[in-house]
Amino acid sequence: MLLDQFRVGPYLNFTYLVADDEGGDGVVIDPSFGIDPVLAAIDARRVKVRYILNTHSHTDHVVGNQDVRARTGAKVVAHRSAPLHQDVSVDDGDAIAAGRLKFEVVHTPGHTKDSVLYLFEGNVATGDTLFVGECGRTDLPGGDPSEMYDSLLRRVVALDDALVVLPGHDYGVTPTSTIGREKRENYVLVPRTREEFLRFLRE
Prior knowledge:
By secondary structure, the protein is of the alpha/beta class. It has one domain: 4-Layer Sandwich (Metallo-beta-lactamase, Chain A). 24% of the residues lie in helices and 32% in strands. The strands form three sheets. A six-stranded mixed beta sheet has the order 1-2-3-4-5-6, covered by helices on one side. Strands 7-8-9-10-13-14 form a six-stranded mixed beta sheet. Helix 4 crosses helix 6 (194-202). It is globular, with a radius of gyration of 16 Å. 43% of the residues are buried.
């Protein structure tokens, strides 16, 4: 499998190019600002980009959609509630196939109503739901601290510890992590009641 991580744009965004092999079918996850290095890699590696997978609808994660779509003809995939153009609408439990790769959708509202994770080949693209050592904000439009509690402390912690975390921003001490490491070290995943979690976010 080919998996390239690009740090692009002014907000330390990560955009990912994933394919079953060089010259094979693949996807781009969260095309952000400054997409030119990703487009160059698509050409250099001859990847047939079938889908653009958006983890959520904030501008810094979707602004490159049209550039990738224009270059490759890829279809835009997002949660059905996302307020953006979608060629394919997905919901919790759905899966998208690109070549030999399958991307499973886990709906994780909290940062936005339309936030999702994509699980594939021992990896999980977490967008702004989970960062290395932190989680996404819940005080922006569409954010909901109670939904973030469910997403983090019920859904994320139930994932396989071995999954490699591919976050939406380079905000941590390392560019990637694992679910197991985040459960041990990330203070937002400390077991709490809902009330304790909401108080923790307020503080």
